[in-house]
């Protein structure tokens, strides 16, 4: 669901209902305030881009435990919570929670992401493949968005998000498309990976793979049967999901389709056999690794490794 709206008033009751849905209670200053913006709902995630002219105070409902991420484009936003008070200048982001107060000084432009808490926790459990023993707490202080810290992924997160809120896909109504679940998952994963939080170190381990449980099961099964061509339906049934859901998640996780991943695995196995098993003929290896013919095997091998199987065997590398 994608919406665009504009309002100019000094009466909160005249503000767009969508604004209250995003933030909660809105209180303008004495003068009139102009508000314009767009928002897109992707299931449990809301993406919005807002501009304010005039002073406005927004109180986030204490009972609202959603995660709200605010990125300043221009102007200044003041954040007050039970634990801190801080200004969020241009080039910074902040994670706000229920009970906090946001004050906007004109003119201000912000992008924001709101994620339902249950969605975030469910995704964390999928990534770790186990119930979460610790609650996730995003950095409450303003986070700079720059390249001064080479280890930070915040610049990439903000650049990607800025492109997303302007994307024709959102304006075309991808929120009504079945693919919205995949887009929402990518957004949540990006926040988990890039935005600082108390569990960040757990996801900075070398080789840590962000993958849903059904993708992990599919990968494990493929590796257990490396010489077989396993059809997507069999893999989807293992994870209890639809074939389409598995295909989208598999591609997002590995960068390869299911068939490409299996082909790559068989090709790597064939490479090892050519190098390490001189007692096996190339034809036998091609057959063992599921290639339709020796010619098809040679073509795929050269494309994948830049050398023919016979040349590799002769070189002994």
Automatic annotation (TrEMBL):
<dbReference type="Pfam" id="PF12833">
    <property type="entry name" value="HTH_18"/>
</dbReference>
<dbReference type="GO" id="GO:0003700">
    <property type="term" value="F:DNA-binding transcription factor activity"/>
</dbReference>
<dbReference type="InterPro" id="IPR018062">
    <property type="entry name" value="HTH_AraC-typ_CS"/>
</dbReference>
<dbReference type="InterPro" id="IPR018060">
    <property type="entry name" value="HTH_AraC"/>
</dbReference>
<feature type="domain" description="HTH araC/xylS-type">
    <location>
        <begin position="216"/>
        <end position="315"/>
    </location>
</feature>
<keyword id="KW-0805">Transcription regulation</keyword>
<dbReference type="InterPro" id="IPR009057">
    <property type="entry name" value="Homeodomain-like_sf"/>
</dbReference>
<keyword id="KW-0804">Transcription</keyword>
<protein>
    <recommendedName>
        <fullName>HTH araC/xylS-type domain-containing protein</fullName>
    </recommendedName>
</protein>
<keyword id="KW-0238">DNA-binding</keyword>
<dbReference type="GO" id="GO:0043565">
    <property type="term" value="F:sequence-specific DNA binding"/>
</dbReference>
<dbReference type="InterPro" id="IPR050204">
    <property type="entry name" value="AraC_XylS_family_regulators"/>
</dbReference>
């Amino acid at each position: 669901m994608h919406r665009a709206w504009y309002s100019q008033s000094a009466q909160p009751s005249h503000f767009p209902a969508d604004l209250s849905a995003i933030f909660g209670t809105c209180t303008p200053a004495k003068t009139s305030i102009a508000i314009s913006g767009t928002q897109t709902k992707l299931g449990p995630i809301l993406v919005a881009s807002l501009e304010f002219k005039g002073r406005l105070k927004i109180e986030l409902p204490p009972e609202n435990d959603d995660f709200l991420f605010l990125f300043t484009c221009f102007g200044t936003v003041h954040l007050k919570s039970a634990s801190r008070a801080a200004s969020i200048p241009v080039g910074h982001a902040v994670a706000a929670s229920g009970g906090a107060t946001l004050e906007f000084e004109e003119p201000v432009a912000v992008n924001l992401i709101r994620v339902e808490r249950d969605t975030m926790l469910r995704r964390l459990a999928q990534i770790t493949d186990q119930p979460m023993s610790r609650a996730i707490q995003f950095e409450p202080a303003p986070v700079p968005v720059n390249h001064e810290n080479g280890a930070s992924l915040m610049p990439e997160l903000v650049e990607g998000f800025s492109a997303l809120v302007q994307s024709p896909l959102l304006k075309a109504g991808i929120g009504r498309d079945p693919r919205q679940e995949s887009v929402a998952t990518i957004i949540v994963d990006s926040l988990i990976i890039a935005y600082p939080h108390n569990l960040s170190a757990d996801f900075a381990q070398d080789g840590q793979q962000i993958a849903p449980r059904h993708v992990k099961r599919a990968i494990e099964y493929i590796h257990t049967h490396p010489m077989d061509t396993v059809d997507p339906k069999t893999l989807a049934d293992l994870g209890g999901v639809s074939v389409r859901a598995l295909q989208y998640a598999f591609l997002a996780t590995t960068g390869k389709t299911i068939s490409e991943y299996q082909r790559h695995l068989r090709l790597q196995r064939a490479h090892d056999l050519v190098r390490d098993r001189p007692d096996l003929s190339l034809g036998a290896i091609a057959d063992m690794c599921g290639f339709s013919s020796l010619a098809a095997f040679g073509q795929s091998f050269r494309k994948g490794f830049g050398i023919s199987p016979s040349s590799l065997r002769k070189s002994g590398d």
